[in-house]
Amino acid sequence: MEETPAPHKRRPRYRGTNPRRFEERYKEHDPERYGATVERVIAKGQTPAGMHLPICVQEILEALDPKPGEIGLDCTLGYAGHSSLLMPRLLPGGMLFAVDVDPIELPRSTQRMRDQGYDEVTFISRQQNFAAIRGLLGEAGGGFDVVLADLGVSSMQLDNPARGFTYKADGPLDLRLNPEKGRPASELLKAVTLPRLEKILSEYADEPYAKDIARAILRSPNPPSTTAQLTKLVRSGLGNLEEKHVKKSLARTFMALRIAVNEELSVLDHFLEVLPYCLKPGGRVAILSFHSGEDRRVKRAFAIGLEEAVYETISPAPILAGEAERRANPRSIPAKLRWAVRSTKPLG
Ligand SMILES: C[S@@+](CC[C@H](N)C(=O)[O-])C[C@H]1O[C@@H](n2cnc3c(N)ncnc32)[C@H](O)[C@@H]1O
Questions:
Q1: Residue 272, ligand 1, Cβ within 6 A
Q2: Predicted local confidence at residue 1, as pLDDT
Q3: Are 78 and 154 in contact (CB under 8 A)?
Q4: Atom of ligand 1 at shortest distance to CA of 130?
C-alpha cells in the first residue's frame, strides 16, 4: 500500500531507528496516511498505537443478525470497530445508538463514524454509562433489536500511559474510564484498608499473591501516585518470583484496580438487570467479557432469564475467538462471548 507523504512537519523526536513510546509512534496514530505501517504492525500480532482491533466480529454478527430497518445499540463504542460493522447491516432504514463513558475517545470515534458517512440521524452517540441505557428508550422508539456490549477497556486506553492503565509505561496512577468523574486509583490506594485491597485483588482478578501485594502497597509510607511507583511496590511484594509470573501479577493488579475504580462489576449487574426491558420482543444481545468475574455474571443473568422465560434462547456455552484471531490478536485470547434472545412474550 502506498503511503501518503505528510505535509512538511517535523516528526516527533525519539531515540534509535524506530519510535518505541506510545506518543512517539506517529505513523500508527495516523492510519489514514500511514496504512502500510499500520498493516505491518497488525500482521506482527500487535495493535497499532491509538487503535483497537474489534474482537469476535463474525461471531458477534452471527449472534446479533442485524437487519436493515432495525435499531441497534453499541453499549461500548470504543474505537467504533464493531459499530462500523453493525451500521451498514442496519441500513437502509435502521439506526445505531452508541454510548461510551470515555470523554476523550468518544468524540474521536464518533468522528470516525461521521467520516464513514453516517450522519446524526442514523448514528447517534452519547457519552454515558451503559448502566443507564433505559434513558435512551424514548429516542429509540421503546426498545432495541440488537444490543452489543464489549466490556472493559480499549487498546487506545490501555496503551496510553497518560491514562495509567498499564504497568508497561510510566504515567499517573489514574485508571478511570472517565477521568472527569470519580477518584483515580492513587486516591483509592490512599484510603483503602488492607482486607479491602486484598479482596479487590483476589475477587476481581483472581490474584494468587493478593495478600503479599496488598501488604507491600500499604506498607509503603508514600502511597503510589504513578504507575511506575505502584509497579515497584508490587514487585517488592513478590520477592524473587520468576519474571513471567511477576508480569502476570502486575497485569492482574492493574486490572483489579481498574475494576474497582470504575465499579465495573456493580455497573454490569445493573446493566444485566435492565437489559431485558431495553430489548424488543425477539431482540438479540451479545456480550463479550474478558475475565471470570464478568463472565460469571453474564452466564448467571442469562441462565436466570431463560428459566424465567425473559429470554427465549441463550448461547449454550461461551464462544471463544478462533485460532487465527487468537494468533493475530492476542488481546482476543481471554474473550468470552455469550448471547441471548429476548422472549416474544411481554415481560412480567
Ligand atoms: C473493549 S472497548 C470496546 C471496543 C469496541 N467494541 C471496538 O470495537 O472499537 C470497551 C469500551 O467500553 C467503554 N466502557 C467500559 N465500561 C463502560 C460503561 N459502564 N459504560 C459505557 N462505556 C463503557 C470503555 O470506555 C471502552 O471504550
A1: no
A2: 44
A3: yes
A4: 20
Q: Top-level CATH class of 57-155+283-342? A: alpha beta
- Sheet (strand 71-74) strand order: 123-127, 95-100, 71-74, 144-150, 279-289, 336-342, 311-314
Terminal alpha carbon distance of the chain:
56
Q: Cite the DSSP H helix spans in 105-242.
A: 105-115, 155-159, 185-191, 194-205, 210-219, 227-237
Select 179-261's CATH number: 1.10.150.170, 3.40.50.1370, 3.20.20.100, 3.40.30.10: 1.10.150.170
Neighbours of 69 (CB within 10 A): 12
Please state, in angstroms and rounded to a whole number, the distance separating the CA atoms of residues 186 and 23.
Answer: 23
Inter-CA distances, 36 with 17, 41, 43, 48, Å: 18, 9, 10, 11
Give the Cα-Cα-Cα angle 179, 206, 218 (nearest 5 degrees): 60
Do the two domains 57-155+283-342 and 179-261 of this chain adopt the same fold?
no
Task: Using the mean position of ligand 1's atoms as its centre, give its distance from the Cα of residue 100 in Å.
Answer: 6
Q: Is 19 in the pocket of ligand 1 (CB under 6 A)?
A: no
Q: Are 206 and 256 in contact (CB under 8 A)?
A: no
Domain assignments of the chain as residue spans, ordered by start: 57-155+283-342, 179-261
User: How high is the mean pLDDT in each 10-residue block of the chain (348 residues)?
Assistant: 54 67 63 66 68 94 98 98 98 98 97 97 98 97 98 94 95 98 97 98 97 97 97 96 97 98 98 98 98 96 98 98 95 97 92
Atom of ligand 1 nearest to the CA of 102: 25
Tell me if 294 CB under 6 Å of ligand 1. no
In Å, how far are 109, 277, 302 from 262, measured between CA atoms?
A: 21, 24, 23
Structure-block grid coordinates of residue 201: 485483588
